[in-house]
Specification:
By secondary structure, this protein is mainly α. The chain is about 80% helix and about 0% strand. The protein has one domain. Helix 2 packs across helix 5 and helix 2 runs parallel beside helix 7. It is globular and about 55 Å long.
């Protein structure tokens, strides 16, 4: 759970920094941490609460909506724990990550269509431009969870002898 909290903090900070450095990129870093955290988490109540709190923090830092991202991140945390089993292969998890990215953009458009106007080209542009950097961050988070799980499994095996 500590690793998930640290990665959520890093993702929230990077979601504020990356669009300032790379103008056309829309990062979806928090979604990858929520998806992989849901797979590697044992205490779902704490995980749900953590996702909601980080969503509220995200809203306070970057948007004018107070609980929007809190509920969206809570929804994705629940969805990742329901849809994906604890042991999933990489391609299945990556496919769900892409599906979560599209769902996230569509949810944001649904909740903010009164404030902004969107077209299909804008939606495709948002998803396509950030695909490369979001994939790299997803790989980083996936490998981080994989290495940490291997370390803990090896440590448990050493104690059993």
């Amino acid at each position: 759970m500590i690793i998930t909290i640290i990665l959520l903090l890093i993702s929230i900070l990077l979601e504020g920094i990356i669009p300032n450095l790379l103008r056309c990129i829309t990062p979806f870093f928090v979604i990858s941490v929520i998806l992989l955290g849901g797979i590697n988490n044992n205490d779902s109540k704490t995980f749900y609460l953590t996702c909601f709190i980080f969503g509220v923090i995200y809203d306070l830092l970057y948007t004018n909506t107070i609980f929007l991202h809190g509920f969206i991140y809570l929804f994705f945390a629940w969805l990742s724990s329901v849809i994906l089993p604890k042991k999933s292969n990489f391609l299945k998890v990556f496919g769900y990550y892409l599906l979560f990215m599209v769902t996230y953009v569509l949810l944001l458009i649904l909740f903010t269509f009164l404030y902004k106007s969107y077209s299909v080209i804008n939606i495709i542009h948002i998803l396509y431009d950030g695909l490369f950097i979001n994939t790299i961050f997803f790989l980083f988070v996936y490998l981080t969870y994989f290495v940490i799980n291997c370390i803990f499994k090896n440590r448990l095996k050493k104690h059993s002898y």
